[in-house]
Each structure stands twice: as structure tokens, then as C-alpha cells.
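Protein modeling request. Please complete all fields; requests missing the sequence field cannot be processed.
Requester role: graduate student
Desired output: 3D structure, C-alpha cell encoding
Chains: 1
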Amino acid sequence: MQGLVALSLDALSSVAYGPEAIALVLVAAGTSRVRLTLPVTLVIVALLTVLVVSYRQVIAVHPDGGGSYAVARDDLGPRAGVLAAAALVIDYVLTVAVSLAAGAATLASAFPALLPYLLETSLAVLVVLTAVNLYGIADSARVLMLPTLLFIVTILGIVAVGLARTHPAATVGSGVVSHADEALGVMLLLKAFAAGCTALTGVEAIANGVPMFRRPRVAHAQRTELMLGALLGVMLVGLALLIRRDMVVPRDGVTILAQLTAGAFGSGWTYQAASVIVAIALTLAANTSFGGLPVLLSLLAKDRRLPHLFALRGERPVHRYGVLAVAAAAGLLLIAVDARTNRLLPLFAVGVFTGFTISQIGLVTHWARARPPRWAGKALLNGTGAALTAVATLVLLVTKFTEGAWVVVVVVPLLIALFTRIRHYYDGVARELHLGTLPERRPEPSPAGRLVIVALHRFGAMTGPALSTALSLGEETVAVIVSTDETHARTLRDQWERWDPGVRLEIVPSPRETRIRPLLEYIARTAAQDERPLLVLVPTVRSTRPRYRFLYDQGAILLAESVREHVPGALVCVMPCHVHT
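Delivered output (581 residues):
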């Protein structure tokens, strides 16, 4: 159940805007045409069935996660892989942005005072979600358990109570959003189908996040995918039946789901409570990306198409850098569109269905190569899914190009170029360092001893341990400290001579009271004049309490990085002295 909660809320909550997207297209041909929402929804549910079966197969074939990226990379080649990866990255980032924007808008519908603060509300929830996911997917799943169950019960309750009534209990909203200005035709129906396919977003998240499941991972993930498909299909068909029977059309100030809620429960406190539950579910639906995208970024990092740090996992375990990347990208996108859902949906659907199409084509290729028992039927199923999702992608791209879909056309090639450039760089590094090959013979130790330079900031309790460590590491040790004037230099010299640790002290003058550059110049000059191997020991203070670490001088880290960059061949060791204050 935790897997369904953590990775499926995006797909389930899409019923809040999927049917409305269909109605917004059909109403352009007249309010009576909104009745066609039901047959369009039935076609979408048929496509949902194909996708659910397909992604159950993806889970079995690629249990390491990655979804469309893993399928395309392994079955269609690296170029198709990076295309699928770029589409998935866009999909996941937009999932966060769309979910938070839609959640804020739904909440503002119930409480109009929040309407001027849609962006602030979205960003605040984004910060909370990021913090929860940095704690780990298991913890966030427990947090999401109750809201997800309440959302499922609420939507099913709207359908059941609404269908049981002979007429709506109440009506909300005013004025039809648009008037008839288009003729009903094949193109309009295709546009309605493509728009409504936004309700299928998130179906692939379970296949992308298989490593998040408990063992046996494949069985648990496949069962979760099936539960998701059944729930989503029932919700979509139920809401479409209500739209058709009650002639619910898009109106100003309210969503179609809000109208259906009022029709089932009335406009009293139950209507407000249901709206709050839907708003919470929409905001938490962004958690799907926090579960799936970090895993995808980790796979890309392992394939050397992203920096290796995205493959790192914390103790919980969590891909922390992936979580932070999702949050940063979604936050920037929300700011760019001022948290307006209608500006995000065209970008959203194109990215989603590009990934769907690539995944289906990849599986067709896989079955044709592997030829397992009954492979022809599986290939036919996936081929049908590929054709349907390709049609949806093309229609969306053509009809929504000027409304924002052009951004995807620009961003996808840029992401592909980024992945390719990083891969070429890592490959070049591997060739230069001969990674993966053993040297011809064992390296001989240097005949000369090592010179150790201890870069001091000031004298104190950490000076003694630093010198003792340095003496154990090399043949000769030199302590170096920066002085701002002659008086300060004499004071330092007198203190050192009274202590007499048996180590030579070099005092580097710095009239401008800078510390890093004089030390770096001394180290570089010594390295050029002395042929012995050089090690630079940099003592630093570090608090055991993370909240106080920003109070300490970061000069030691800056010096260490400067030496690594400007003094080739020098070893650098940062020696922390921990304080408990």
C-alpha cells in the first residue's frame, strides 16, 4: 500500500483536471457537445488499460527502474535512451509544478482570499515536500497515507452519491467559460482526446521507482500498477458519466470537479471539506516526482550522462541531490508561469506522451528480439499503445504549439545535448586515466622523503595534534602562518620559540590582511623549488552541531581547493578539530 501512496498520487489526482481538459475542448463546439466527454473518456481508459499492462511488462523486464529510459536505452539504443530521459525529466518536473499549481487553485476556489497568493502557496508546499522527501520515501509514504485514502474515498463518494441522485443537490459557479466557435469534427475530437490524456500522467512512475519497493520488488510493483489502473479507470468513467448526465460545463470561478462535488454533496461544509481534501491530494501528488526522478537521475549518473553526485545515496537511503534538483527546477518553473495550471498543461502532456511512445516502441523491439512465448500478442499490444500515444503526442504538439508546447521542442534537444556532452567528457577522462586497466608494473616509492607544510591560522589546542600528524607523515615538517604586520610577526615568533616544538616556523607577510593568496603563493613557490613530494596539511575547526557550522571560517576549505587547482602534484589533507559548543 505504501508504494501506491508514494508513487501513484500523481496519476490518481489527475482526475481533478483530466475530465475538465476534455470538456474545455468540447465546449468550443457548443455546450451540448460536452456530453461527448464520456466516449472520449472511454477511449482514454482503453489506452490506460494498454499502458498498465505495458508497464507491468516494463517492471518485469527492467526491475532496476528507469521506466521509459531503461527500455529505450536497452532496446532502442543510446540515442533513443537520452530522448526518453529528457522527456521523463520534463514530465517529472512538470508533475511537481502542475500538481502544486492545481492544488493551490483548488484551495483558492474554496477560500477566495487565497487567490492572490497562488505562487506563494505553491512554493510553501514545495519547501515542505522537499523536507519530507529528504527524510526518505518510507517516511513520506506514511505522511501521504491518510490524504491519499481520503482522496480516493472522496472521489468515489462523489461518483456514487452523484449517480444515486436524480438531479444535482446544488450548483456553483457562474457563466460558461467559452461559447461555440468551432465545428465538431475529427480534429476537435482528437484535441479532446489529447487534452484528456493528461489524466494518464503518472502511470509510468511505478515502473520508474521499482527500487523503492520492498522485496520481491517486481511482484509488489506489478500489483501496485494494477491497483492504480483499476482505481483511475473507475474514477474517470464515473466522473464522465456525471458530466454527461447532468450536462456539467466549464464555468468561471470553479472547476468541473467542484461542480460535481456540489452536485453530490451540496454547497455546505461537506463541499468545502471535499475541496480541501482534493487540494491537499493535488499538492501531495508532486511526491511522485520526488520518488521517481531521483532514481532516473541516479541511472543517468551511473551511465555517465549526469554528474556522479546524483548517484550518491544518504543513510536513509535517499538520492538527496536528485531531490534538491527536482525542487529547484519545479520552483523556478512555478515562478516563471506564476503558478498558473493552464500555462503548464500543454508542456506537461507532450513530455509525458513522448516517454509513453518511446517505451511502447522499445518493448515491441524487445519482444521481436527475445521472442518469448506468446511474444506476438505482447508486441501487438505494445504497438497499439505506441500508435495511440504517438497520435496524442502529435495532436498536442500541433494544437498547443503556440500555447507553450514549443518549450518542450526547445528544452528536449538542450537536455539531450547536456547528457551527450557529459558522457563525452567522462569518456575522455576515462581514456586519459586508462580507467579499468591495470598499470604495466607496480610503482616504485620515491627515494626522497616527503615535505609536509602545515598551514596554520592561529596558535591553539589544535596546533599540537596537527604538528604531530605532520611529523608522522613526512621527512620534514614546516609550519606556515600569515602575519599582517611586523609587530604581529614578532609576537608569533616569540610564542613559537618559547614553545619550541622542534618544527621550523615560516611567517608569510600579508600587508593587505589576506590569508589565502599569501599561503598559496608560498606553497607554490616551495613546490617549485623543492623536488620532494609535497603534502599540505590544513587544520580546521568543525562543530559537532550542524546548525553552528556556518559560523566557522571556511578559509581552510578554500585554501585546500586552491592548492589542488594551482599546485599540481601536491597532496592536500584537511584535518578537522571537532568542538562540541
